């Protein structure tokens, strides 16, 4: 793997006749492909300088900064180019959904699926982010008839009580040596924990960051 200085990268890349190069954006933690967009030289320079993704809109013919209006910005972790130097892979830490529809990834329309569904979903943590966004929308919109709305309307004490109840159910399931009970109740606990995170304005990636820091400290000890 070559490490190319940022100032030399543009000279290496092959931009098309419009001065553009496709950039595949990937979640650095889960490996999930988030979107495909295009960069010109200026967008790439700004991406490198700001450590946030910038693209060139072919329809509007102007630069745009991902997340500038939505707040769902992308923190650049790594930029790579392919063997022909005519495409980029940008690994990012995604803040919020990447797609304008509210989906976490723009590639949410499945045409063919030949894999085992359990393997697909166990290979990434995108469902956590998707569920977090759904709960966030419930917090903002408070639709009637929603259990999540009920929890937010009842307030912090109710949410904390439910977390305690679900934790107790997991203990019971474990004592019963019931794998199915533990999986089911753990799902309930994670959901209610996400509700609490939304209440405090804490994003799932902040928890992942905390775990990563602990892991790093352990390696050094």
Unreliable runs = 117-124
Q: How does CATH name the architecture of the largest domain?
A: Orthogonal Bundle
Identify the strand order in the major beta sheet. Answer: 2-1-6-5
Kindly estimate the percentage of residues that lie in beta strands according to DSSP: 15-25%
Can you identify the CATH superfamily of the largest domain? MazG-like
Number of domains: 2
Largest sheet: 4 strands, mixed
Q: How would you name the oligomeric state of the polypeptide chains in this document?
A: single chain
Helix tally? 8
Average pLDDT confidence is: 88
Helix content: 40-55%
Ends apart, CA distance between termini: 29 Å
Shape: elongated
Question: Would you give the CATH topology of the largest domain?
Answer: Helix Hairpins
Give Rg in angstroms.
Answer: 21 Å
CATH class of the largest domain: Mainly Alpha
């Amino acid at each position: 793997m070559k490490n190319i200085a940022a100032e030399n990268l543009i000279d290496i890349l092959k931009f098309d006749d419009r001065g553009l190069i496709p950039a595949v954006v990937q979640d650095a933690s889960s490996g999930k492909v988030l979107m495909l967009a295009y960069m010109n030289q200026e967008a790439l320079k700004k991406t490198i300088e700001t450590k946030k993704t910038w693209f060139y809109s072919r329809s509007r013919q102007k630069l745009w900064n991902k997340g500038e209006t939505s707040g769902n910005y992308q923190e650049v972790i790594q930029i790579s180019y392919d063997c022909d130097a005519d495409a980029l892979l940008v690994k990012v830490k995604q803040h919020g959904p990447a797609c304008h529809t509210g989906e976490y990834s723009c590639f949410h329309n499945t045409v063919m699926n030949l894999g085992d569904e359990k393997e697909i979903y166990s290979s990434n943590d995108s469902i956590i982010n998707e569920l977090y966004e759904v709960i966030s929308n419930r917090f903002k919109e408070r639709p009637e008839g929603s259990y999540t709305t009920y929890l937010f309307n009842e307030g912090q004490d109710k949410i904390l009580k439910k977390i305690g109840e679900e934790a107790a159910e997991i203990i019971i399931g474990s004592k019963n040596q019931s794998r199915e009970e533990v999986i089911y109740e753990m799902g309930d606990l994670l959901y209610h924990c996400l509700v609490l995170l939304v209440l405090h304005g804490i994003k799932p990636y902040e928890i992942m960051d905390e775990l990563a820091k602990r892991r790093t400290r352990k390696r050094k000890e």
